[in-house]
Amino acid sequence: MTQIRPCSPVDISKLNLCNLDPLTENYARKFYFDYLAKWPSMFIVVENIERQIVAYVMGKVEEDPDYLKVLGDKYLPWHGHVTALTVAPQYRKMGLAKDLTAALDRACEQENAWFMDLYVRVSNKTAINMYKKMGYSVYRRVVNYYSDDPTGKGTSEDAFDMRKSLSRDKKKKYIREDGENHRINPEDIYHG
Fold first, then answer.
1. What's the confidence (pLDDT) of residue 75?
2. Is the Cβ–Cβ distance between 42 and 61 less than 8 Å?
3. Which residues contact 14 (CB under 8 A, 6 or more apart)?
4. C-alpha pair distances (Å), 113 with each of 21, 76, 116, 136, 149
5. Global pTM?
6. Residue 192 has pLDDT above 60, yes or no
7. Which of 49, 98, 114, 167 is deepest in the core (most CB within 10 A)?
8. Helix (H, G, I), strand (E, B), or coil: what is residue 161?
9. Distance CA 75, CA 56 (A)
10. In the sheet where 2-6 sits, what is the strand order?
11. Helix, strand or coil for residue 51?
12. Using CB atoms within 10 A of its CB, is residue 111 exposed (0-12), middle (13-18) or buried (19+)?
């Protein structure tokens, strides 16, 4: 039995079960605490009956500064971002990732975001397929986004920027059909 609930400061020291996965990005403790302080409704955990954290999602809402609207379609409006979503291996295939993502979607809907986005390694086919089943599609391919290499080959890896429209984006302005064919460099993502 598990329970989905908001993250608390004490939980940050209990993320190890989830963070041991080589495809999970690990951050300094300060990073987790900063997220919890800035976006408490978007840091959500799953706790098992032994009170262990077995899954979590960290998200935020953000946008480019107004002066960058001159960039046209490269300007990022108010949107939700999935910074990290991970489930401990023994708790996978139980729908926890879907439940956490839905909870984050609801939090971003309350913030009136246009869409959700996330970055995923192109080699992580399991995650890509899972996100597609949840309504995400590839918006673009970010070349050499990940500079580390969990395979040990010593190379960088591309990421897919995947997006899902929220209710505010009725015209689906912030998604596209052929995102795999749109390549950009990491420095072209952030403008602010």
1. 63
2. yes
3. 52, 53
4. 30, 11, 8, 15, 32
5. 0.85
6. no
7. 114
8. strand
9. 29
10. 2-6, 43-48, 53-62, 79-87, 115-121, 157-165, 137-146, 183-184
11. coil
12. middle
